[in-house]
Structures are given as C-alpha cells and as structure tokens.
Amino acid sequence: MLHGSLNMIGYGLAAIGSAIGVGMIFAAYINGVARQPEAQRILQPIAMLGFALAEALAILGLVFAFVVGA
Amino acid sequence: MFAFALPMASEEGGFIPPSVSDTHLPDIFPWFAEYGTGFGKQMFMIVLSIVLITWFFTAAIKNPKLVPSKTQYLAESGYAFVRNGIGRDIIGEKNFRPWIPLLFATFFFVLLNNLFGAIPFLQIPSFSHAGSAYAMAIIIYGTWIAVGLKNHGIRYFKLAVVPSGVPGWIMPLMIPLEIISNFIVRPMTHSLRLMATMLSGHIIVMLAAAGARHLIVVQDSLAMNGLGVLVILGSVAMYFLELLIMVLQAFVFTLLTAIYLQGAIEADAH
Predict the structure, then answer these.
(1) What angle do CA B91, B97, B98 make, to 5 degrees?
(2) Which residue positions does UniProt flag as site: Reversibly protonated during proton transport (chain A) (predicted)?
(3) Cis bond leading into B30, ω under 30°?
(4) Where are the domains of chain A?
C-alpha cells in the first residue's frame, strides 16, 4: 500500500493558482522591460513584490498541508 | 503508472517514503549525550559557513592588485553584484551605502548555507530547518521596522498601513489587509519561502536515495533493479536543478530584504 497524506494532493492543486499568478506577473514584467528597457529599475521591485505576495499563497498552502491533520 | 505499479510489487516489505522528521539529526556535541544542547549538524554548518566566508574574503583582498588575481576577481564581482545589482538598484543611489554590509552578509551567508546542500557529506541545507530561517527573517523584520521608525517616527505605522490615493470608503477593508500582509504574513513568507524550497530539495535527495535503495536491494526482479539505477541517474538532473534553485533563493531572499528596507526608508514616497 502507498503511505502518505491526501494533504499533499490538495497542496498540489492549491499551488496551481499561485503558479499561474507568478507566471502572469513575470510575463507582464518581461513585456514591460522588452517594450521599455529603461523602466527595468522601476519595474523590478514591483514585480518582485507581486511575486512575493502571489507565492505567499503557495507557501501558506504548504504550511497548512503539513500542519492540518497530518 | 509507476506510482500504482510500485506498491503492488512490494507487498511484503512496503516502501515507506522519508518524511520531514527524517531531517531532524541527532546532536553532535556532546557526542551521544542524553541531554540535548541543540548543537547539531545544522549548527555546525552555520559556524563553518561564517568561518569560510570570513576566510575567503579576507584572503581574497589581503594584497589587492590593480590587475586582480582570479580569487580577487571572484570576490570583487560577488561584492559588485550585491552592491550594484541589489543594493543600488533597489534601495536607490541616495540611501544604499549604509546597507551594503547587511545585504552582502545576508546574500553570502544564505548562499553558502544553501550550497552546503549540494556538497557530499554535508548534504543538507542549513535553512531546511524552519528555525534557522525564522532567525534570519526576524533579524530582517526587526531591522526594517527600526529603520522605518527612525526615519519617520511613530508616523511610520500610519504610512505603512494606510495606502495613499485610495477613496475613503474602502479604507476599513484596506487597512486590516495591509496590517496582515505587511506585519504578519511578510516575515512568515520571507522565512518559509527559503525553508520550503530548501526542504523540498532535500526531500528529493532523500526520496531518490531511499527509493533507489528499496528498488535495488529489497526488490528481486531485474526490471525493478534497473529502475533503481534509473532513479539514481534521474536524481543527478534534479541535483543541477537544485543548484539553480539554491542560488536563486539566496538572491530572492536578499532582494526581498532590500525591497523591505527600501519600503521602510521611503515610506512617504508613494
């Protein structure tokens, strides 16, 4: 039999959301820099902050996957 | 398909995958003592990383030359990367100078501790334990709050949680959200991002090793033994992916440190 927890499958599903979010943020960032390379210094912190916020959801999901009802 | 084929083939023994509790290693000092001091492998590696970083950078700049040697070139380009690529670009030309030492120390401390996960016999990133990552994040958290209070006084908390240019009726919704995202979730995700990526890299190594051992030693059929060899070959590719992630996470951790500091210094700018 296979040992493990269903939580991990739930976490994998939940991570899809923030994966799409992170992908869209960097797609927009690359687009912006490609159109206007001198805006890179302004766009980079914004992109990184957005990435951090979107990835926070995936990290919270991972934590809950470990914590909730093992 | 393999995930379903594997358990049926190993009914008698049963394959137990390694879990998070397998990363808790015994104390190495004092050796096999009954009471714990907490001085385990991770603690040893953190001390080792400080010794190595200090030794490398003092040796690299001991007699600096105009035409640098290879070691000096490596040290200087690493320093320039943190100073210009992270410090100057994020914090800004005016305020970045006092923060170079913090950013430089953070970047190389996290980078070397991550890379320990790729060195045989050490083979575990120090930050794969949440405790060490929490300690790093608390230092940064305290620093940027102190910087905000020093630059703006007690008004900093208002600047940090009340967004400007937002209509008044949406404020009851925005202020609690900003408090949660800035002061509660931010240090948590800052540390757990580092810890989770390092832990997952280490779990991949553990899983590959335990799976390959099970397939080669416990299983009888030749096909399963061959599969075990394939697992070892596949884990080499994962090793290089992990190397990339280790460097990237050190960069992201330092970049977020710089972004948080910049937000605290220029809280009234936007």
Answers:
(1) 100
(2) 55
(3) yes
(4) 32-70
Residues making up chain B, counted from first to last: 270
- Kindly determine whether residue A53 and residue B181, on different chains, have CB atoms separated by under 8 Å: yes
Q: Is the pLDDT of residue B96 over 60?
A: yes
Q: Any idea what the Cα angle at residue B195 is, between residues B123 and B202, rounded to 5°?
A: 30
Q: B176-214 pLDDT, tens per residue?
A: 998 998 899 999 999 999 998 898 888 888 888 888 888
- CA B264 to chain CA centroid, Å, is 23
pLDDT in tens, B162-177: 888 888 888 899 899 9
Nearest to B17 among A3, A45, A53 (CB): A3
Q: Which of B3, B16, B262 sits opposite A3 (nearest CB)?
A: B16
In chain B, the percentage of residues whose pLDDT exceeds 90 is 41
pTM of the predicted structure, to 2 decimals: 0.85
- Report the number of secondary-structure helices (H) and strands (E) in chain B: 9, 0
Q: How high is the ipTM of this complex?
A: 0.71
> B51 — contact with chain A (CB < 8 Å)?
no
Q: Which residues of A touch B255 (CB under 8 A)?
A: 48
